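## retry 2 of 3
previous attempt timed out at serialization; input unchanged, resubmitting
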Amino acid sequence: MTDTEQELARAHGNALRLTVLLRENDRFHHRPAYAEIVHRAHVAGLAGASVFRGVEGFGASSMVHTTRLLSLSEELPVAVVIVDEAPRIRAFLPELEELTRGGLVLLDEVEAVHFPARDASQGRDAAAGGETAGGGAGA
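## retry succeeded, writing output
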């Protein structure tokens, strides 16, 4: 296996995506439930968590909640997404039980692809238009 193939093998891997669907105003001890989930995921050492706010949606109540001006709502859908190795995600599930009353938790097997971080000076040079990774125009 070449160095590039080994690097790509390390950059790809099977993972589990945990998505928690809830309402923006769901609370846990006076704190937004989505914020508590992110905090607990951080404490648990999971790879990362992101919160996405929906602009419109409905759930079990069948009532549509929207951001449209004439029907302002604090019941907008929110999704918390966490991706990590399957055993780490499954170990985190008990934490969600008390936080997601009325919410929905989804688990999806995914393939994770990690691209190496770009050196800040490389990105700047490429954006400036001309230098190559081999050292630049005058090197």
